[in-house]
What does this fold into?
Amino acid sequence: MSVISGKKILLGVTAGIAAYKTAFLVRLFIKAGAQVKVVMTPAAKEFVTPLTLSTLSKNEVISSFTKEEDHSNQWNNHVELGLWADLMLIAPATANTLSKMAKGHSDNFLLATYLSSKCPVYFAPAMDLDMYRHPSTRENFDILTSFGNTMIPATSGELASGLSGEGRMAEPEDILKFIEDHIAESLPLRNKKVLITAGPTYEAIDPVRFIGNHSSGKMGFELAAAARSLGAEVILISGPTHLQNPNEEINLIRVQSAVDMFEAATKFFPEVDIAIASAAVSDYRPKLSATQKIKKSAETMMLELVKNPDILASLGEAKKHQILVGFALETENEEENAAGKLQRKNLDFIVLNSLNDSGAGFKSETNKIKILFKDGKTKGFQIKSKTEVAGDILNEIILLSNE
Ligand code: CTP
It folds into this structure.
């Protein structure tokens, strides 16, 4: 999955012949899972039609401050659009637009949107070779990069003028790759390996029956997706759930029982930097699992159970450089029980869910957590979606790994 998947991209098209390539660019962004909105300078419409770009981006293309078509006298809101974007790309960026951007002019909608944006801005220059190497253009590149914008350099080749040299806009595939690599480099969990346990475990009684629990696995899968999108290499070891792998780049290992999960987790633990145990592991399993379906006979039946290995406690014992995080789902003496587990299992922090909080726990889409750290500090959070909770937990891990 691309790092731009889910991102909101604002593409600013200016009046260069390379504008025709933006149709391909929009398609590449959409295929990579991004949302795209396009703004154009009025002159750019001579080079590629708004109809083409609005069809490909599935959004209206804006090129002026007023809604011309419906004569509604309404303003297009450049501030709203600038704030909507997760990233802005000006491509092709002509010498004229770059000069105006460098000086802070806002005499068209694209420039006003650029000035209003708070997101990272990339620009891909496209112009004739002499314009590209002119000292004023070079100075504008420097000014714009000093403002924190990122330049996607032009390449050499045949130019629209018939001359050959530097000034061709980078190819759409290369622009996409440049942006993806640039984002990946800045992700806080790049070069980190994360192990996550998730879901319930099923402990077989016979071939058709098991002891299990109501864990959906959602919290663990959200953590895996969030860790991956923050740049980590993720190994997700999950008990039986109906959930799909949220990202094909996550190494999802499906297991059934606590013993299976224990074997997988202890195998991978030495090679990871961070481990998060969110699985609801059965504490016990039947001593014997019948090979044939057990027939009903007597009025009562005894099932002898033996203790399962405590996966997290074993990881705590084996822990060296790793950051280790556990969960505690408690119904009484919440903080005290969670603090006990934090210490016994040698964790860096434990995420406490209280079943007494409505909207927290196994089956719900939301969760309300409190984090207890090994130094005794605690941090409470509001009720949030499990996606947001995953973000909060990983944030705390990033803070710890930067210490
Ligand atoms: N855990 C584990 N292996 C087990 C039991 C628990 O890895 N056999 C992990 C869970 O994934 C969770 C943490 O330990 O991160 C705490 O789990 P919990 O079930 O709340 O605690 P237990 O240690 O099982 O204690 P109890 O059931 O007595 O509350």
